[in-house]
Design a protein that fits this description.
Organism: Syntrophus gentianae
Structural class: alpha+beta
GO cellular component, one term: membrane
Transmembrane segments: 43-62, 93-111
Membrane topology: Multi-pass membrane protein
Distance between the termini: 42 Å
Radius of gyration: 27 Å
Number of helices: 8
Keywords: ATP-binding, Kinase, Membrane, Nucleotide-binding, Phosphoprotein, Transferase, Transmembrane, Transmembrane helix, Two-component regulatory system
Strand order of the largest sheet: 2-1-4-3
Helix content: 55-70%
Largest sheet: 4 strands, antiparallel
Length: 255
Amino acid sequence: MSFTAKNKAVLIRSGKILLFCAAILATTKLTLQFDALTSQPTAAFGFIIIVLLSAYFGDLIVAISTSLVATLCFDYFYLAPVGTFNVYAFPDWISLVAFLLATVIISRLTASAAESKTNATELNETVLQLEQFGEWLSSIPDDQLALPLIAKGVMDIFSLDFCSIYVHGEGKWKHSIGIAASPVFEEIERKLSLFDDHPKSLIELATENIPGVRYMPLAKGKIPPVVLVVKGHALPTNAIGAVARMISLRLGLAI
């Protein structure tokens, strides 16, 4: 059974939640086995460290899930009456609420910092890929410039699942695919062939094709329309626009 990128992300996130929640339970068991480690501050400190790790190596959902489990364990095992989720003493209520707020705030800040670092890394990688693609595209001799070659270059340089350039002419879409067909690509080709009789807008293309496929015009408002079609999560939409502009300039198309 094959998983989509979204299913894989959910599976990885679920695994991380289970891992860090198991770490909370293991820490609880450890602290309860040694009298010297059973104080509330020591247990809370251990839980906060695990929450920090969950936010750094996971995301906000992983961190919040870990934080809630840590709060429940802190209540059940360390606040009187021990062994219940009831809290009778007002100071214990303050401890519980403070612990929950601290873990949630720490989760949010740490997850944001980790996400910003990831975004910066991805942005730098995309900029380098755009520079590489621009140099490669400009190095192609005019007599060797062809749409299938460009499509394959886009797909290879940006590590896409699919890339093709579609030109509508003579009553049908002409496909300049950049890689040999596979079941996914054949599905894209099949659905595009359903409206070979006339060109459609990008909105119509987006609603009629399979999820995850993105479209960018190479010649806006021109006849015949020329459209860059890609599938893959490695390239942001604004970067696809930059790629389309470079291709349009190289081909001498109006943009």
